[in-house]
Design a protein that fits this description.
Elements (H helix, E strand, L loop, with lengths): L6 H7 L1 H24 L17 E7 L5 H8 L3 E6 L2 E7 L1 H8 L4 E5 L6
Amino acid sequence: MPPRTSLPRRAAKSPTLRKLSVVIAIVLAYQIWLSVQAGGKVGPGVGADRDERGRFPVDVELGFAPERYHILRLQKHGRIAGTDGQVVHLRGVAPAGVDALAREYWIKHIEAPERGS
């Protein structure tokens, strides 16, 4: 009778499990990268001017003119108040919405709007 190999050793030899572990590692690395780069996108003063519901306005800067897809994605987190070139003005954004917006790879920067705008 041949010697029995352990389960971890057999799993390491399985091409399917190796491919699956590579895919899982890539997805985890991408999620970590999104979290790390999201920290530098939110400018100072975002969320300082909250209303009675705890929501606030933000200006979302993209690296390009927004298209329908981007506007629809931004509407999930607040009301669109207009656009100025590559900047989309959102109102009524919750703190969780800012976190979700910052994780979008196509968003360049999130700022508090200037007073009077």
